[in-house]
Amino acid sequence: MKHIKHLLQFLWFIIIITFYITIIHVKCLIPKLCVHNITAIGGSGICCPIPKNSKYPCGGPGQGTCQKEYTQIERIPFYLIMDDRMNWPSRFFNHFCKCEGHYFGIACNECWYGWEDVQYLLSFLHRYASRATLFHDAKDCILRQHLDNNHEVVGFLTWHRYYMLFWEKLLRKIAIQLYGWSDFTLPYWDWVDSKSCDVCVNSLLGGYGQWVGDTRLIDRRSPFYMWPEYCSPPTTGSNCYSCHAGWPNFQVLTRYFESSAFPTTDNLLFTLSKDTFYLPQKMEDIGKCRGFHQVLEGFCSFTGDNSTYSFMHNKVHNIVRGTFCCAATSPNDPIFLVHHTQIDRIFQLWFMYNRPRPTEYPNHGVALGNCRECNMVGFIPTIKHVLMFVNTELIGYTYDNFNFGRRGFSGEKYLKCGPKYRV
């Protein structure tokens, strides 16, 4: 993945096309090839298609075979029994293609990341995994808290890494079809030490437009002007909406800025100083802010920091606001892509220095759907968190550099000195 200045000028056009392709299939969480196999007996379905140019489900020996899916079963509280995301995807299917070698995909007719190609992505996917609750009553909502499977959880970084790989593969597929651009990669936005949103210009992701009430449109000269904002509210009349408060009265992309205090080099150094990914003691993990995953996602920071806008990942969302404010709507804003590649770049730098073992990612005692061997919620074919808890070179990509900010942070020097490194 490359720096934003190299690729972002071309990204907007590809995203526009992608949006209209994916929005048509926005409710297709289950692969179309397998929808007809969902049975009345929950979880007894089989998703083992026959790939093109083959006579056998999953391609047959040497490519893939149809096997019972292993799902690490977690104890589900009674109030979550009806949540179809629990023990994903056992509510829908119990047999999938198990691919051999470097084959991958619903029918084992694609390649694993780093070897070649993969398939669809939906705007719906991020919201499905992060939706708040199924409760009808607001009181119950507050009592049970959120049921978000991909935020404020240990799997935040691994889930979003895979989600970004989906985005990149989809966009590359379109780039190849339209331009023969086979080496397309997602750019990143280095916001460290920024004083303003330097990608918020019409030649990139859209400049500032007119104010409408307490929010702001994108400039009318930008291709992102009046860009649709997708977020489906619950159809049950639930009071616990996960779309932001302005929805559905306002259904186009907006941004307004609460602050210009983007994360700094000092914030980055503090984040990278955490040598432990996760600590089982909540007071240590988040209370004393010793868990790397908590610091990078932004739910804790250094002592004495009274920032109104949280930290690192969260802070940027809370600065940009508008569509970008919330889990349910933020993937509609193209800033989401370049922001999350930046987060993944920091994750990769930390990983290269600390080289954690797979067992340092917990397998028990964490939020449902987030254990090491748990399937990530929302993805079919299934993918376990541990497969994304790796050096990115093992899944086929790296970054052009690990330099950050305006003060000259050097990733190369950090890898030599570690937390002792100072700019």
TrEMBL record:
It comes from the Eukaryota. This is Uncharacterized protein. The keyword Metal-binding applies. GO terms for molecular function: metal ion binding; oxidoreductase activity. SUPFAM superfamilies: Di-copper centre-containing domain. It comes from Schistosoma mattheei. Keywords: Copper, Metal-binding. Pfam families: Tyrosinase.
